[in-house]
Amino acid sequence: MAERAAPLYAIAKILLTIFFRLFNRWEVADRGCVPNGGGVLLIANHTSYADPPIIGTACPRPVNFMAKAELFDMPVLGWLIRRTHAFPVRRGASDREAIRRATRILREGRVLLMFPEGTRSPNGRLQPPEHGAAFVALSAEAEVVPVAIDGADRLLPLHSPLIRPAKLRLRFGRPVDLTRFRGQRLARELLQQASEQMMAALHDLLPPERR
What we know:
With about 210 residues, this protein is α/β, with parallel strands linked by helices.
């Protein structure tokens, strides 16, 4: 069954594509690394609140997103993100419902975006990973595709409400081979090793000053 984007998602993708091309002169490389079908977990570095719409616009398939639960309580933004494939996650706690939903999305053959760092980087460089993305990927036996973003923190800087005309570059990488971890108990040490392998693939896609 072909994936269908929600109507508002599809409209937003068209408008944002035009915006990023004109305002940010964006460059997107290797979209073909995203498999045409099946569950795919996109993992990306996280430097800005703009990262999810940037990746959702660049990806050739509709993308589902985790967003912190507080955003869903905001009058306009909450209405908007509910209609653009986002679902809530409680940060700072083990949100089992969000993890189950993320795993289900992948098992249903859809695309999900997660940020292994867990939160935005304060300096634009990769931070140590948490284990959530590895747990979801291995639980769902999904393909894992790294996505490197350069320039989002200049487009929408930390603690700034203003969007700026910064150069934006995205690069998709080849799927990360996690087959050696599958079929094993998802203990902390195994999740750490899988997380490190996922981050290494992401690291290699980034420019040196972002690593």
